């Protein structure tokens, strides 16, 4: 009798393990939002003072702040998805000293991205990586002259750059998923620096609740 009970318990444990391992968000459309810390990594530059002397003063910018990303995507299967997003980065602010100078230039950036997302699930947790491309609109307000060898900056410019990212997600329910991720738009020409976003997010997956919990 004891042997039979042991076998039954073993079968139950194996079955339970297989069901738990199958727990994963199924393929389908999803959308969500992220918020966190951004860093534009802009370099020290010369701020024009508007005075006869000195004409410019060197300023190291404040590059960090709160940014947001809104996204939608489509899961191909539990291992892959395609995602489209819009990111607002906190601006870089060049605040000269003395602070009484009226010219406080800022460099603002907003971008749209298209990425492929590769995931590896462990029960309700998944690690993922992203690779794609982003088009970022960079806008300068105020008078700013770059220190050599960077070119002088003014107005707005468009930058198409590779985008990479990594993160971890957790399934709150068969439809709701939260995540923690880091993404970077890689620096390129015309003075464009790495643009980073470290954020937490929440997404709703429009998937069948049964298939989302137990793979179909």
Strand order of the largest sheet: 1-4-5-6-7-9-10-11
Largest sheet: 8 strands, antiparallel, barrel
3D shape? elongated
Question: What is the correct CATH architecture?
Answer: Beta Barrel
Helix content: 10-25%
Q: Oligomeric status of the shown chains?
A: single chain
Question: If helices are DSSP runs of H or I spanning 4 or more residues, what is the number of helices?
Answer: 2
What is the H/E string?
Answer: HEEEEEEEEEEEH
**Rg, alpha carbons:** 24 Å
Structural class: mainly beta
CATH class: Mainly Beta
By CATH, the topology is Porin
Q: What's the average pLDDT?
A: 82
Q: Distance between termini?
A: 37 Å
What does this structure look like?
The protein has 216 residues and is mainly beta. The chain is elongated, with a radius of gyration of 24 Å. The protein has two helices and eleven strands; from the N terminus they run αβββββββββββα. A hairpin with a 2-residue loop joins β4 and β5 (80-93). Mean pLDDT is 82; it is low at 11-22, 146-152 and 212-216. The protein has a single domain, classed as Beta Barrel (Porin), CATH 2.40.160. The chain has an eight-stranded antiparallel barrel. A three-stranded antiparallel β-sheet has the order 3-2-8, with no helix packed on it. It has helices at residues 2-21, 209-213, and strands at residues 28-39, 45-48, 56-59, 64-77, 80-93, 106-122, 125-141, 144-145, 156-171, 176-185, 195-205.
């Amino acid at each position: 009798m004891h042997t039979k009970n042991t076998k039954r318990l073993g079968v139950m444990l194996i079955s339970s393990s297989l069901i738990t391992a199958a727990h994963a968000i199924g393929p389908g459309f999803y959308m969500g939002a992220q918020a966190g810390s951004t860093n534009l990594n802009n370099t020290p530059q010369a701020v024009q003072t508007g005075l006869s002397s000195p004409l410019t003063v060197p300023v190291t910018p404040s590059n960090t702040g709160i940014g947001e990303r809104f996204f939608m995507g489509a899961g191909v299967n539990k291992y892959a998805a395609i995602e489209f997003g819009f990111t607002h980065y906190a601006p870089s602010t060049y605040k000269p000293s003395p602070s009484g100078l009226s010219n406080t230039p800022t460099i603002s950036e907003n971008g749209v991205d298209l990425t492929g997302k590769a995931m590896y699930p462990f029960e309700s947790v998944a690690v993922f990586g992203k690779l794609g491309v982003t088009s970022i609109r960079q806008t300068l307000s105020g008078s700013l002259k770059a220190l050599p060898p960077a070119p002088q900056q003014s107005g707005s410019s468009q930058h198409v750059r590779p985008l990479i990212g990594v993160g971890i997600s957790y399934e709150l329910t068969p439809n709701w998923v939260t995540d923690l991720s880091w993404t970077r738009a890689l620096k390129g020409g015309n003075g464009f620096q790495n643009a980073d976003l470290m954020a937490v997010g929440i997404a709703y997956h429009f998937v069948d609740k049964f298939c989302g919990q137990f793979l179909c």
